[in-house]
Amino acid sequence: MNWQICIRYPNGQEKPICAYRNRENALKRVDAIYSQGYPMHVAYVVRPIEASEAIAEDQSAPLSLQFA
Hints:
This protein is α+β, with helices and mostly antiparallel strands.
C-alpha cells in the first residue's frame, strides 16, 4: 500500500506534500518534521493514497517536501 503525507489546514483542507511506499517511512518523516518544532495552525497527517492518485504519481521515491 502507498502512503502520503498531507498538510492539514485549520479549515479542514488537506494538501499532499510527499508519498511513500512504506507507512513507517512516512511516519518517520512526520516525526522529523515535528522534531524541528510544532507548526502553528497546521497538522501533518499520514493517510493511504487512493488508487486513482497512486496511478498518477511516481511512488519510487518521496516527492518534494514543501514547508508552509
